[in-house]
Amino acid sequence: MKTIAVLSGKGGVGKSSITASLAVLMAEKHKIVAVDCDVDAPNLALVLGVEEKNFELVERVQTSERAKVIEERCNQCEECLNACKFSAMDWDEYVNLPRINKFLCTGCGACTLACSENAIKLESIETASIKIGETEYGFTIVFGQLDLGESGSGHVVNAVKIWGSEIAEAFNAEYMIVDAAAGIGCPVIASVRGSNFVILITEPTPAAFSDLKRAIELVNHFNIPHGVIINRFDINNKFTDKIEEYFKGNDIPVLGKIPYNRKFVDALVNLKPIVVFEPEFTNIFLEILEKVDFQMDINNVLTD
To answer: 140-146 and 120-134: which strand pairing?
Structure first.
């Protein structure tokens, strides 16, 4: 199985909608599994039109710890309040015990060290859900969702990818396509690590290009072959020419250029990938997939 990750340094450049269309076209010729690794705000299933009633919860993930007071041991010394540097503890005068704010507690353990009576312990907590669903296009989608206010997205991404790989193996899938989170943080690193190829998405704006260059540095760090799609290339043709010169000078292949069109918005509103909602765009995405295959074949030759 080969893993293709779709990444953008900046959010809002069309990464998930492009991933959805690529997945639909890939599924016409190959067995695939789609994995949404943007666990803070997963929306690939939404773009693919998978209804919530069709999701199956397969795992609750524990990624962090939180302090808990053992009431019968507490001697009301209040030393734990002074030890917490995150203002996660205050005093509950009603019960005369320390009170822990679950949204501020990071599980650092300072309060447990400060307590001479061992009245505070750290306990593992469930912070995210992993779900799977079947799309109407013949492939399974796996995604994770962090609970409100929780952290540990990098660990959740790892768990999501493990589920995706196991499902892919069970179905003898040829490809796993990964929709990564935006940026270059922990969830993105976990998303792209181990990929056979990375598709980078950008648009001709200074902010998107600046963030893309940081994403390219990340991909180069892991020595992963990659190429770029320029979305909405015609909103600023001069800037598009500028970034194409950058790609050419750095030997980064341009896999395709997608024009701005209001129909992309209409497709999202109707919960359809653009190649389904408006088939006239199919050839653009087919050409992108052909170039991805070509680049992957070249890399296989070079590594062999």
So the answer is: antiparallel
Q: What pLDDT is attached to residue 302? A: 47
Q: Is there a contact between 11 and 41 (Cβ–Cβ < 8 Å)?
A: no
Q: Residue 21: which of 300, 258, 260 has the closest Cα?
A: 258
CA distance 166 to 173: 10
Give the CATH superfamily of 2-50+135-303. Answer: P-loop containing nucleotide triphosphate hydrolases (3.40.50.300)
The reported pTM is: 0.86
| Paired tokens of 228 | 């770029």
Helices marked H in the chain — which ranges? 15-27, 44-47, 79-83, 110-114, 153-170, 186-192, 206-221, 237-249, 262-269, 274-277, 282-303
Domain locations in the chain?
A: 2-50+135-303, 64-126
- Parts of the chain with a pLDDT under 50: 302-304
Give the model confidence (pLDDT) of 180-219 as tens digits. Answer: 987 888 888 999 989 999 999 999 999 999 999 999 999 9
Q: Which CATH architecture has domain 64-126?
A: 2-Layer Sandwich (3.30)
CB atoms within 10 A of CB 176: 23
CA atoms of 264 and 3, how far apart (whole Å): 26
